[in-house]
Please model this.
Amino acid sequence: MTNLPSTAKQPLSLIYLDANATTQVLPQAAAAALTAMETLFGNPSSSHVTGLQAKQIMDKARQQAKKIVGAGEGKIIFTSGATEGIQTAILSTLINAKKTLNNTNSKGKDYCLLYGATEHKAVPESLKHWNEILEINAEVKAIPVDELGRLDMDFIAREVPNALLICTMAVNNETGVYQDINLLDKTIRANNANIAWMVDCVQALGKQDLNLAQTSIDYAPFSGHKLYAPKGIGFMYVKENAPFTPVIAGGGQEGGLRSGTENLPGLAALSVIFDMLTGESEHSFTPVKTLHLFHQQIVAALIKVFPNIVFNHCFENSVPTTINFAIPGFSSKEIMDLFDAANVRVSSGSACSSKVTRSFVLDAMGLPAWQSESAIRMSFGPAMTQVLVDQTCSRIVSAAQALQQSCLTIDINSMDEKINADKAELDGLMQFKMGGSCSWLYVDNKTKTALFIDPLPEVTDRLQTLLTCRGLDLVAVIDTHGHADHISCRDSIAKTCLAEQESDCLGWPANAQTTNIDGNKCQYITLGDKWLVKVATPGHTDDSISLLLCEPVLNSTEALSVHYAFCGDLILMDSLGRTNFSTSSAPDMFTSLQLLAKLIGTQSLICPSHDYNNEFTTSLSAEMSRNLLLKQVINDEISANTFSMKKFTMDKAIIDESGSEIMCGALISTCDKKPVHEYDSASLAEAMKQSSAIKLIDIREPHEYALQHDENFAENVPLTRLVQFVQEHQDYKQAPLVLVCRSGSRSHLAAQALSRLGFAQVGHLKGGYALHQY
Model:
């Protein structure tokens, strides 16, 4: 593959802290697998020498597994992984239960299948699947957990007498919380001596001592790739005399319990891991006591640089290799992107979209929604070393410093001139998004003043940090209307930053000046060398206003030169604001749309208070090309009455789901995104060789860019500053632009937005930095 220039002045080595998802294959295990493929490749079922050599590897691995998990007289069956083991345990239990139910008078009795509310999704989904397929028709019930993630023993005692199967886990994959197996054993058997019990032991291997034969556990699945073996190999423990039905039938391998030619390379690698676990190898894993010290060191580093960090689990009942936390004011995606830029891999529960993905595990523990939505998981395995821990802590500090340079956090011990001189410049417009809602911050760096429009509660702390860090004075904080979908935080910001300022209910300053614009009296305030003009634009609500950031008006007859029109929910991307609230008026909206068009023209950028489709900004020209109703209004092709009737029909299509964000506009079309040119590294390198005119634009945020970049390779235009880039670079509309980000998701969205706004030669790097070397 052709490589482009390096994105890092000093490339950072990879620090992988997502071991609970999967682990790298250790060199010793990989070597054993390769040997098995090249020289010990026989089929263990064959009776010749090569087959016998292969069988020896398999037999050794089985005996090692029995010893490590304390299987006693129980069976060890090799599988493809934990999911297969889960299927086997559930299927075996339910087939046996079905036979029992058919042979007894069970009519009228309600049976259930129990699983821990924080189990891996493989468990409840498998329960539901086989329950339906086998027509057991038992109720699938989640066992509640408390705020520490511990299973509710009273619930188990009450429900287990009527249960056909109970599934729990030894160690949770998201939080590292472990269950009290002995207490579970006593509770279950005191209330149902014969119920089948499966325990997911995937995350316990190598982190806890196991002695399964000393418990009444019937089934326990394990997975190799969670502990440095290859993917595709695992095993399960089956208690002596536990019901068993093979999931895979065929040649009768594994004593007829699991057919299919054995995965010998996987078994050879797994055997090496077992040697390390038992101390029978020259290479050994880090003792659990030392893992606790590693945990303490990493936690201390996190607390030092993020003093307000919140840990989502109690360390007293968690294994030391998992740290789950949230940082107030930051989404999980932001923190994951930050660590990715520092070449540290962590796990995030958030998707790269406008919809936030929450952790069902943390929800089940009753944690606040923001913690569930902002959760970050760091996880490592017993191969962790002191050197890697030291590097991790150093990288955490570097990441925090990058946030400080972007003024997203403040280090009160570093507020000196040198540190402040290193901070990324902020001058102009920034867009903050939470879900489909937008806030807008405009900064005039010369006068050190700022303006905040449509403030969202989630970004209040970030605003205060920016103001303090950069020494900015807030001129005004203004709502464009009374918001129905959230409570405005304007009052709280005003009390903190503008205690002496008098304003109306939306925050418009009482001391605003008045000017005459095209025969209309308008109020305005100044921000540096710009004016912010207020225009009443009712319709969505009766108090709706538009705020026009423009050049000063020197002559009342000249047209406004508008940079940004903050119009609230009057015009949305691919939509118009809804007019079916009690304070709405479609006829007023008709008049407001015509007035706004007259004032701002067709090319000024519109900055609404919602962006449901990740389109960032728009203009009347762009909207009229796809919104026929708006086009008819602007061109005066329909009457106010006709508009009102069409708007009534449109608004009827809006469905507000209970508990979700209120939709403030009805989508006009399907919002098909414009296709943009996608490059891979080879095609981009070739294009750059052919044309020196290509401009590469890195749209990661400044803190990501600061951690890993080459300023000679790409200009940094953060996604939060994309709207300003559009406004300031109309001369780029014919220039070949290629956008780049971490994974290609943000660059794809941004490229589509620029294409829609008239940038004719915009493309992006598919897969971003994640898939391409530079």
